[in-house]
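Students often ask why we bother encoding 3D structure as a string. The short answer is that it lets us treat folding as translation between two languages. Here is a chain of 205 residues written in the first language.
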Amino acid sequence: MCVWFPPVGRSEGLCVAWKEGVELEPHFCSKNIISYIVYSDPLGVPWSFSMVYGPPATSLRRDFWNAVPSLLAQTPNAKLLIGDCNGTLLDCESWSSIHTHRGSSSCSGAMHGYFNEMGVLNLGFSGPSFTWNRRRGGVLFSRARLASVEWCSLFPQARVLNITDSVSDHCSILLNTDGEGNLGFKPFQFEAMWTLDVRSHWIVT
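And here it is in the second language, the structure alphabet:
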């Protein structure tokens, strides 16, 4: 089953797919964010799932991230956000072949502020390190796989796999909440003591 917004030419486009039996309720859907509340995994503990495609234009991106907090305010505290934010939080999340070095972070103040308030953790991944290739200019970007502390506590064995596509310059992102199967890396394990360090709201390695 899936919900999707078609691309405009060769850009944009957003799709979320899930296996049969997953019980979820749409919260908000647009060409830039698809947000659902999941009820079936685990039973009785709803959590928020959001797939994001940040607007490419800087002015629209700022307005979008200013609106996101109110869009997700009524969702459970256990939140997961996956997708292409069209902005990076850290220098290591981009790379330029022109300058042959890591790029620079490019998030808007609103995006940075929301992630800081949310206290997100990076889930880690298996597969290609960079999941979006801006072919013109040779610039590579990583995509977001961010979750709140509450979500990580619900799914300590969660795994994320980046899947390459021969016909697209974006990788698909596969989320496995129960951690079954070998995706080629050690499962994420949340440790409560990490929250004692204020830096844990940004990076946990």
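Translate back mentally: Residues 90-106, 128-142, 182-186 have pLDDT under 50 and may be disordered. Keep this in mind for the problem set.
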